[in-house]
Amino acid sequence: MTAAGAPTLIVVGGGGGGLCTAITAAQHGATVHLLDKQEQLGGMLHIANGEFSGAGSRRQREHGIDDDPRRHFDDVLRISHGKVDRELAWMSVSAQGETVDWLDDLGFQFDPATPGLIHGHEVYSVPRTYWGVEHGRSVLRVLLEQLAPLLESGRIVLHLRTAVTGLLTDSAGRVTGVRVQGPADTAERQLTADAVVLATGGYDADAALRNQFLPAHCSSVLIGCLDHATGDGLVMARELGAAVSADGIFLPVMGLIPDPGRPGHAVDYREAFVELAPAYRTPYEIWVNKRGERFVPEDTTSPELRERTLLEQPDVTMHVVFDQAAVDAAPVPLIRNPGGDWDSDRFARACRDSPWVTRADTLPGLARKLGVDPAALESTVNDYNAAVAAGADPHLGRTVLPAPIGAGPFYAVTSVAASILSRDGLRVNTDLSVLTESGEPIPGLYAVGEVLGNNVFAGDNYVGGMSITPAMTLGRHLGARLAAAGHDRSAA
Ligand SMILES: Cc1cc2nc3c(=O)[nH]c(=O)nc-3n(C[C@H](O)[C@H](O)[C@H](O)COP(=O)(O)OP(=O)(O)OC[C@H]3O[C@@H](n4cnc5c(N)ncnc54)[C@H](O)[C@@H]3O)c2cc1C
Question: Has residue 492 got a pLDDT over 60?
């Protein structure tokens, strides 16, 4: 690059973070090599709910919702218990409304129910969460539309099925490019650029790497994300001396079902999960741990309470226990998916023959199949039925008590705590420069998206939209900044 010329960037990873970085950089004049080891772009957008958040958006105003980034940030601090990285989180939150407007301008297909409140995480004080009619893929759709002309003009050069295997540095320690292995490469080759952006996502698909960051008793949590999330960017940067957070924080996602065909993995979230949020479905069941004991009021409106309580249960495992009457009576099926193609009939069939459902004519028989003490399960069900009869649950305080668990056949769907996104990641400054252990920026190396770790934006909790939206928002910010740095070298 000449001092006044447009820079060449390498963006590693074409998920929401990398795509926004590459598109914005190219639109601001940079030449971008966008590399992804997968056959298709999109990363976790293919499976994600795609719920993003932003305050002060045009769409909020159109819906008569009074909001601003400061109130959004107050909510983020409340829900995250103040444990976010305040500078980076504010940098994102303060611009997230603009990201929403940008998607809106691009023709994003909002679900008509948005902006809405979501109940899968602790609830915001006003509706400021948005999602598309095709969830994460709605986001991907508009990003790919933006990408197309940039590919055509050559501003972005796309390298699919091309894994970045390492970072190149010069004698001064500046990152000058990457080592890659593409589909036609018989050996690794090198690609150089003025700056490299790591947008490689998280590490949760690599259980051994993930477990380095989890509390020891959580090592059996299910993998609930796509296979590409193997922490490559984190590992590569760590080899150069990059600092990686190790906060020891973990909160599971609940409701994922162990995949009988793939030990350690959850059934694909797009296929099925157990709906536990009472805002979306009245619970007709009880949840028991491996000792056959209930452990949390099944109607709690606090996702955080149920997630933290599950972490204290043996093998972070729960069985959702119900009878035939619940199958027949519950208006919304227990098993759902984001595509909405589970109905009561499909669920009833699953109860008869799915490997995800354990069934028996008697409660002791069900308990034995689950590996639970039969006497303990019977006692728990008797106590629950007494609570239903009395209209009060003295044990846990559940108030939604629609029916006893009475006659067989009896069923259970087992669910294990799952990890879907990485809590720890590369430490960066507000330039999104990757930092060394001593806090120095590694020249030429930047990072954006889940590779930063979700604790930066969500503290020790889940905060609505606070993974996808920072990935997109800071990606756009970084892309524009790095492109501008080509015209003003001092900013790089
Ligand atoms: C089931 C599920 C639901 C979710 N729902 C939401 C939600 O509603 N809201 C929200 O905010 N967050 C949600 N998330 C999290 C969110 O989807 C991710 O945190 C976010 O999309 C990550 O974006 P990213 O661009 O950083 O990484 P990714 O989307 O993971 O993209 C990383 C890309 O890098 C590529 N890559 C990795 N290593 C290499 C390498 N060595 N060489 C080349 N390419 C490489 C990968 O192939 C991939 O395409 C959800 C996650 C899951 C699993």
Answer: no
